[in-house]
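About this split. The held-out portion is used to measure sequence recovery: a designer receives only the structure tokens and must propose an amino acid at every position. Recovery is the fraction of positions where the proposal matches the reference. Here is one held-out target exactly as it appears in the evaluation file.
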């Protein structure tokens, strides 16, 4: 036997031993990944069970006769559902304002990064936008109180003077700026990272064949985007916007610091003291001073917010999953860097 053959024989691993090692590694990582996936489901179920058990006493209580709940927060509600309804409206209303203000800007930023900006500028801008997600909400709240509230006062006066016939801009203009408009602007900035990041990735997945075909037929850059990119990315854009909605629904400290709320149904965005309170901010403001049953009521409102946020995120993930399946089945020529 030659020296080469001896060395090959010495370094050769038996196939059954190699297969055994691979199978052991596969089993380990399969168990690890399965444990991680199951733990997420267990945590989510645990949160849901906690909210149900802790909120059920107030949900089923008689709010007219109970001393802790009758007249809670200076109003006779009659039932838990009457109490949670204006809070749920305030959460949804502030989130919708944030979407109307922030979603177009986020989509514009994503479009600029993916199709217009030079490569170096696009990378830097994408990094800066992603950094916004790392800013704590309390910092956004302080920024809103110190900067945005006085900054928006001239705009509020202008809207009230010339567009006061619209219900959104009716009522006395706040002199402090503690309005839903200021809260919506801050929430719009806070949802920019998630909406921008998702729409940017969807835009980058557009098949190059579609874009090059549109340009070859004489389309301008904007016409190519309108005819090739937007139709392909429509479901992904909707999913990103819904995820931004879920982010805005659960915001607490920024809204708690900025607006001057009341427990009522209102669409006014320029008034002070007539802004609809959100569930998260209401819990943060009242939980430390609440009695046991009042805390149960606050946890019950948190359960309603949990259900709404979960439904919004499930819808968004479903739409995004459909977009991913479409991306995998679409023909591609190359990959944009």
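Reference sequence for scoring:
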């Amino acid at each position: 036997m030659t020296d080469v053959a001896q060395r090959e024989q010495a370094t050769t691993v038996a196939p059954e031993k190699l297969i055994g090692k691979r199978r052991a590694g596969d089993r380990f990582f399969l168990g690890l990944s399965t444990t991680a996936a199951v733990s997420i489901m267990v945590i989510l179920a645990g949160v849901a069970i906690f909210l149900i058990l802790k909120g059920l006493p107030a949900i089923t209580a008689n709010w007219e006769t109970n001393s802790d709940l009758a007249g809670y927060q200076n109003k006779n509600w009659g039932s838990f559902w009457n109490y949670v309804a204006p809070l749920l409206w305030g959460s949804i209303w502030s989130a919708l304002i944030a979407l109307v203000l922030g979603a177009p800007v986020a989509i514009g930023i994503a479009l600029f990064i993916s199709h217009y900006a030079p490569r170096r500028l696009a990378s830097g801008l994408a990094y800066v936008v992603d950094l916004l997600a790392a800013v704590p909400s309390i910092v956004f709240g302080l920024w809103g109180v110190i900067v945005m509230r006085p900054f928006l006062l001239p705009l509020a006066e202008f809207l009230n003077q010339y567009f006061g016939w619209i219900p959104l801009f009716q009522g006395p203009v706040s002199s402090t700026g503690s309005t839903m408009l200021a809260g919506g602007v801050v929430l719009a900035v806070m949802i920019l990272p998630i909406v921008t990041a998702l729409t940017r990735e969807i835009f980058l997945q557009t098949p190059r064949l579609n874009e090059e075909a549109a340009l070859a037929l004489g389309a301008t850059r904007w016409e190519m985007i309108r005819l090739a990119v937007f139709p392909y990315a429509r479901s992904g854009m909707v999913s990103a916007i819904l995820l931004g909605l879920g982010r805005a629904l659960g915001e607490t400290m920024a809204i708690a610091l900025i607006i001057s709320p009341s427990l009522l149904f209102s669409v006014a965005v320029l008034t002070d003291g007539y802004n609809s309170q959100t569930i998260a901010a209401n819990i943060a403001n009242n939980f430390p001073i609440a009695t046991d049953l009042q805390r149960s009521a606050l946890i019950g409102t948190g359960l309603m917010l949990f259900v709404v946020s979960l439904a919004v995120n499930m819808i968004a993930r479903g739409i995004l999953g459909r977009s991913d399946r479409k991306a995998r089945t679409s023909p591609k020529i190359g990959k944009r860097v």
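Annotator remark: The CA atoms of residues 51 and 303 lie 6 Å apart.
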